[in-house]
Amino acid sequence: MDSFLSCYINSKKTVAEGRRIGLSKSKSCENPTCAEIGYCCGYLKLPFSIEIDKAYPFDLMQRGMVRVLLKKEDGTLYNPAISSTSKCHCVWVEW
């Protein structure tokens, strides 16, 4: 399972603060929550779980982490349009 924190796609954060969507803030969204990320995973038919007690080490006030399963046990993708974690980030932002 891949782990995702909401700061990875937060346009209010800098790359140094944990944003992983490159330098372009237009490709990120403003203050996403774990529930919103989970809702997107459900829409994309990706199995996920939300861990409320987890937090990003540099921002302990923003709680929650989403664990997403991109591949089945046999190695095939749950959603062929999403083959990597970076594509997953981009799809969440567009959605």
UniProtKB/TrEMBL annotation:
Pfam families: SRP19. The keyword Cytoplasm applies. One of its GO terms (biological process) is SRP-dependent cotranslational protein targeting to membrane, signal sequence recognition. InterPro entries: Signal_recog_particle_SRP19, SRP19-like_sf. The keyword Cytoplasm applies. One of its GO terms (cellular component) is signal recognition particle, endoplasmic reticulum targeting. It is found in: Cytoplasm. Keywords: Cytoplasm, Ribonucleoprotein, Signal recognition particle. It comes from the Eukaryota. One of its GO terms (molecular function) is 7S RNA binding. SUPFAM superfamilies: SRP19. This is Uncharacterized protein.
